[in-house]
Design brief:
alpha/beta; 15 helices; 44% helix; elongated
Length: 420
């Protein structure tokens, strides 16, 4: 293909040696934050997007991608969904009810939220939103399931009764329902309609009550749903509670153990790094296809950051542009351009017959398969060996001796360690 460097078998082996060395010397942080015992996490944000919720929506739009990245290292696999709801009277350009199904793609979640605007007023369809989250989303059996309701108004008595039933149904289904009162605007709506309670709370706490106010109805919902009810006056508070929900912490532990300032510094630096990387990519052109991160039907999206690895390799070998890593299926036509195929995960790999045939053909044409059993997972190792035995019958995997050139290509590898 014009403009694409041809990397033959020997060059692919050189790349594999660099990959092995980089993994060994800590350039690619695949396993360091991977907690096998963490299992899977599924979290849905049920968000009131009526006109008064601008502040909460803006915080989610800004933070959701980094929030998902921060939690991915704590679990095997994380997926998020969003249910947006507005009011019965709403007839604007957006939907009264809008849903993003579960996805592990933080950018997709961020893009969906950025497509929303807070607008409209009237009676909110909160009961429809809760029903959608409970019944229409495809929850995974065995995953830790979390729902987060964010709003600033409570419905009428009829609506409240229906929502209480849904909260209890969530709990029975293993979904923990947490509630966040957007207290800046919730107090403004609630206080005039509850004059006696308002005066009692104001007398007991003074102006601080406005900062810590939680809708009584939201408190009841969280109790019925097995979660916690919190108030969010500022973006910083909302970030704290979102992290707490994702980590499964109670209110006290969240305040004691989560350093929001440190998280925000990290998120800001990630934004800077991503902007710099994008600028560099644009300056250098499309780059050189190098590593295909291969998908499979099992759990392949392990915590994985490759920026340091690619920068390291780019400084060691000469390529026609910056080295590039792309997520591909074995049947994607673009796979032919990538000399190194990287596959990882927990549990068995699951490739179709067509994918196995494509893998065989790619390896026969000089591709190099690097299979990484995340956290030393035995099922993954066993299944990869079985696939290779199937597509290359009569041939066996052999352990390379320490004197093999691959261990001295780019780095001298004498000892391999695995993060615990």
């Amino acid at each position: 293909m014009p403009g694409t460097p041809r990397i033959r078998k020997r060059a692919a082996a050189v790349l594999a040696g660099l990959l092995l060395g980089a993994l060994t010397f800590g350039q690619l942080n695949v396993n360091a934050d991977c907690a096998c015992g963490g299992g899977e996490l599924e979290i849905v944000f049920i968000l009131d997007c009526s006109g008064s919720m601008n502040h909460t929506l803006a915080t989610l739009q800004e933070q959701i991608k980094r929030f998902m990245e921060a939690l991915e290292g704590q679990v095997r696999h994380m997926r998020a969904a969003v249910v947006i709801y507005r009011t019965k009277e709403y007839n604007g350009r957006q939907k009264k009810l809008d849903v993003l199904p579960f996805t592990g793609d933080g950018k997709a979640v961020a893009d969906f939220l950025r497509s929303q605007t807070a607008e409209g007023g009237g009676e909110e369809i909160i009961e429809t939103a809760l029903t959608t989250a409970l019944d229409d989303l495809k929850w995974t059996k065995g995953a830790r399931k979390v729902a987060v309701l964010l709003g600033d108004e409570q419905g009428n008595e009829s609506t409240q009764a229906k929502c209480m039933l849904q909260a209890r149904a969530m709990r029975e289904k293993g979904i923990v329902l947490n509630t966040v009162t957007a207290s800046q605007t919730a107090w403004i709506y609630w206080a005039p309609a509850n004059n006696t309670s308002w005066k009692q709370q104001l007398a007991g706490m003074g102006e601080e009550v406005k900062r810590t106010f939680k809708l009584p109805y939201y408190v009841d919902l969280a109790e019925a749903g097995g979660g916690i009810a919190v108030s969010s006056w500022s973006s910083k508070e909302l970030v704290l509670w979102l992290l707490a929900f994702g980590l499964g912490m109670n209110g006290k532990d969240a305040k004691d153990k989560i350093d929001v300032d440190k998280y925000l510094e990290w998120a800001k630096q990630r934004d800077i790094d991503d902007a710099a990387a994008e600028k560099a990519r644009q300056a250098e052109g499309p780059g050189a296809p190098l590593i295909a991160w291969v998908k499979h039907g099992g759990e392949w999206q392990v915590p994985h950051r490759a920026e340091m690895l690619l920068a390291h390799i780019g400084g060691r070998i000469e390529l026609a542009g910056a080295p590039r890593m792309q997520t591909l299926a074995l049947t994607d036509d673009a796979l032919e351009r990538y000399p190194v195929l990287y596959v990882s995960g927990h549990g068995p790999v699951m490739w179709t017959k067509a994918e196995r045939e494509a893998l065989k053909g790619r390896l026969e044409r000089g591709g190099f398969l690097f299979a990484d059993a995340c956290c030393g997972d035995a099922e993954f190792t066993k299944s990869v060996k079985e696939v290779l035995a199937e597509i290359f019958p009569g041939r066996t995997l052999e352990k390379l001796p320490p004197s093999h050139p691959i261990y001295a290509c780019g780095h001298r590898v004498e000892r391999v360690r695995r993060s615990e």
